[in-house]
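thread: overnight batch results

M.L. [08:02]
morning all. the overnight job finished for the chain we discussed friday. pasting input first so we're all looking at the same thing
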Amino acid sequence: MIDLKPLKPQLQSKPVAIVGLGKSGMATHRACAAAGIETVLWDDTPAARDGLPTEDLRDADFSRFSLLCLAPGIPLTHPKPHPCAAQAQKAGCPVVCDMEIFHRAYPRAKTIGITGTNGKSTTTALIGHILKTADIESAVGGNIGTAALDLPQLSADGVYVFEMSSYQLDLCPTFAPDISILINLSPDHLDRHGDMAGYIAAKKKIFRGQGTAVIGIDDDWSKNVYADIKKTGRNAISVSCDHAADILVSGDGILAGFDLKQCANLQGPHNWQNAAMAVAACRAQGLADASIFEGLKSFPGLAHRQNIVAVHNGIRYVNDSKATNDQAAAMALRAFNPVYWIAGGKPKDGGYPDCERHISHVRHAFLIGEAEEKMAAWLTAQKTPFTRCSTMERALAAAHALAQQERLENATVLLSPACASFDQFRNFEQRGEIFSDLVKKIIPSATEKQA
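M.L. [08:03]
and the structure it wrote out:
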């Protein structure tokens, strides 16, 4: 747990309001309590308040608070501000997230921050793994895994590696990491940012500081961000798998003489982009290439991101539950062929144009959740066979049966939903865990599981 005692004098004896009592909210509450900082708690959901001392803050006078720590999932601006956010802004009370609180307590802490539409969890975990294998004191958290204030207290030489969502960046008015990474940009969360311009503006907040900026330039939006940052004279490193750049991955996966195809859990061009981002960040942190490449080779992969759960009769069963949008799922469809595709969930705007480019890889689709009818209509237009399955259990059973019946070479049963999970599951993690558990039940032995 992060020691927040250095924060206490800044608060002028005013309590911290915490709205949203999920992982980050409760971590903030615990860290404040341990430091002797008073908190006032609220969550709109009765179950989240159960057993906790709470106060309804939706019409409170926020001038009595030093800070409002708002859960990232609660609207700050769009489609309309949550009442607590509106009341805090009216009273001039700073609206922040847990990472901003961390920064205010430890403004000189060494930090690496990673954002982007896709690949940020893999890149964050990969950087953390490389630092660990190089014996660099470090901790990984934020939007991935552990909440920022639940991380261990590191020494002054330690490095904190944070995955940062656009929601969290909107709630960091002063925090910008020493090494800031933008992997890529594509339309996502537009309901929360108003439009693409609002989404990009939120992502660009990671570059508020003066440290090293690492930016992928393989999409036009990110390329424009790179040009904007470069104009400021700041140290900006471009990364690409397609264009001339400071760090370039060749079409066959060669990066600075190192063959990325050696990395079992970093397959495909999208993962090569993630690896290149990690190389840039770790070089900026002072690591030698030999040490970085050793870390790349031993990276175990990320749960719910193209994770091979089992291999049975030569057929892979892959959990890519974290693919919650079109572009992320398209990366998986590009990487595997042929595919028995389990897709669907809570649909997002924009359709499936990226998946469409790789639809020839889909042998048969098995549809679940609210998006079932929408995806069925799209697949009909693509002349791609599909089965409406409604639930994960039915979809996996049907995909498994067909895949084992056909026994095609290099076949993959792939959960890559291209949709959010909230129609049937708590989050994408639960969706992936249920898929993995079901795979292990229907396959007699998972001893062939790959690392």
